[in-house]
Amino acid sequence: MPHSHHSHSGQFCRHALGSLEEVVSEAIKQRFEVYGLTEHVPRYRLEDLYPEERELSLDDLSKQFLSFLNEAHRLKEVYAPQITLLVGLETEYITDHDLNHLQKLLKDNERRIDYIVGSVHHVSTIPIDFDRVTYEKALANFSNEEGVYLLGNDQMERFLSTYFDAQHQLMRQFQPEIIGHLDLCRLYTPSLDLKQYPIAWGKLIRNIEEATRYGALFEINAAAFKKGWTSPYPGKDVVALIQEKTGRFALSDDSHGPQTDYLVHVGITELWCLDRSSEPNHNGRYISPRRIEGDWRLHAFWKHREGEKRKITFQ
């Protein structure tokens, strides 16, 4: 039963471990039925590189992503008898420059990219998931706007609103099939009550309605456990909102074991996955959602065993 739509490998992502083939081998060992390979798209400004990437050039990053596509499609064929591999990408939206390049990348690699994981990792060009110090820097960026010194709710309101506006732009322009870690904006403040920020909450509602309208799946993403959360992304309040708006959920990121308990606890009664399609979807990609049949709750025996990752880390 296990499915995952969001993964990274150390071969093509500096904050992960293991080769892409090792990731696939582990997925097979863990009896995944469908597994998505989704490395980050390249970044296009030197100032956006992470510390571990400083020796790389922008050209290196672009070549690395194309090498990922080549390797992913090779593995897709080699392991076809054992697992369904989908080849996708995870977005970046730092500036509009990234979206322009993404448009070209998709056009140049038509039929090689099965689907998109739509994710936002930056607010006002500053990473919000690298470490707490950098997150605080991003938040402080909203402490003084238009000559007005902002504190507390006003500051957080604008920070959250900027995040959700970027997410909405990504949805409107590319209509990603999977919405990645919807509430990553509160990574370092997991108990933050988003309803206390009515403008941002309204933008979140707008985003969920937009994604639901065109048929996206919202990922239940286990990476939050590794970041100190007691639940996956998104939090219970956002899950309830997605349910209220008749949104559909998919598993991502080593999603077996603790996620099952969480899904039952928050009242999710059905799961979806992506499947290849003979007909193009709304964006011309040959992929479509499929409801997982049967009672997936019976698979609670798929327990996440901390410490048995070996060389593999799923991000």
UniProtKB/TrEMBL annotation:
Catalytic activity: L-histidinol phosphate + H2O = L-histidinol + phosphate
GO biological process assignments: L-histidine biosynthetic process
GO CC annotations, alphabetized: cytoplasm
Enzyme Commission number(s): 3.1.3.15
InterPro entries assigned to the protein according to its UniProt record, in alphabetical order: Histidinol_P_phosphatase_HisJ (IPR010140), PHP_dom (IPR004013), Pol/histidinol_Pase-like (IPR016195)
Keywords assigned: Amino-acid biosynthesis, Histidine biosynthesis, Hydrolase
Pfam families for the chain: PHP
Pathway entry: Amino-acid biosynthesis; L-histidine biosynthesis; L-histidine from 5-phospho-alpha-D-ribose 1-diphosphate: step 8/9
MF annotations from Gene Ontology: histidinol-phosphatase activity
PHP domain boundaries: 5-222
Similarity comment: family membership: Belongs to the PHP hydrolase family. HisK subfamily.
NCBIfam families (UniProt xref): hisJ_fam
The protein's name: Histidinol-phosphatase
